[in-house]
Amino acid sequence: MASTVGAEVTLLSRLPGGVNGGAVRVQLGGTTPAVLKAVPRAHDHHLDETLRAQRVAEHMRRHGYPTPAWLGVGATATHVWHLMELVDAAPASALTPSLIEQLMEIIELQAGQASEPYDHWSYAWRVATGQEIPTDGSAVGETPEQSGLRRSIAGLAGHSPAVSVLVERVRLLCADAPPPRDAPDMVHADLATPNNVLVRGGAVVAVVDIGNAGSGTRATDLTALAWYTFQDPLLDGVRRRLWARTLDLVGWEGTAVLAAAHILHMLEIPIRGGRQKVVPAVVGRGHRALDELNALR
Q1: Which residues contact 166 (CB under 8 A, 6 or more apart)?
Q2: Is the model's pTM score more than 0.85?
Q3: 267 close to 279: Cβ distance less than 8 angstroms
Q4: What string of DSSP letters covers 6-23?
Q5: What pLDDT, on the 0 to 100 scale, is given for residue 20?
Q6: H or E segment and range at residue 247
Q7: 138 falls in which pLDDT band (50, 70, 90)?
Q8: What's the rounded Cα separation, in Å, for the pair 242 and 232?
Q9: Residue 143: which pLDDT band, with cuts at 50, 70 and 90?
Q10: Which of 73, 74, 260, 263 has the least CB density, counted as fewest CB within 10 Å?
């Protein structure tokens, strides 16, 4: 790390948040605070994907997007790491109506800012419809993580009768949805996780964990926020605004595809992790989301 960033790197303490990979506070050159995230290598292209995320962060920062600067990226034989500037703010403990409204404004900064060929929009369509990647080279390939998730999602229906019913409902809802024609926007892809939203005095000052960012439609991030709002009745009002904005951006079929793909991902996570107790609640929330969408048709 020291050779990459040109300064001594001193480990200081673990930071809150960092659910997936963990975050550590460090000091560069004895004076500059920074954040280190290091995760085990998942596949041969892991470093390339992290470098892609760095390029997305740099591109978006030039357009006023509130994400910290990346100070260095590298890898060892076993891990991939990146250093970014430390923002003097705390992770949100939960997303309130005010924070979600602010995030909706931040998401508008993503409009037309696709800079890397990593298409979350087409991937969501394949997940929702059960389609495979064309073998004629007409589609951008998936990352290893996306391919693994899509294969795992394909087997969800065998988990239980209740899950099977929801999966079948999702497939029928999206059966005739056409594939997206373009992917014009930057997509954060994890903006609804409260720990990824840094706040100070009730204001969002930064969004972090941009490692899975790519291209697509910014409605992807709005859909993830809409899913989050089902946790609290106080968020019902802001969810109506999220649905309305998503419908404006991608229409009803596009909104259904994004919602369906998100529901399937939210099912896959606890099932893969063996957290069977939460699956019925996810199934119930999935049906509720689809009911609301059908009412908006």
Answers
A1: 263, 267, 283, 286, 287
A2: yes
A3: yes
A4: TS-EEEEEEPS--TTT--
A5: 55
A6: helix 236-272
A7: very low
A8: 15
A9: confident
A10: 74
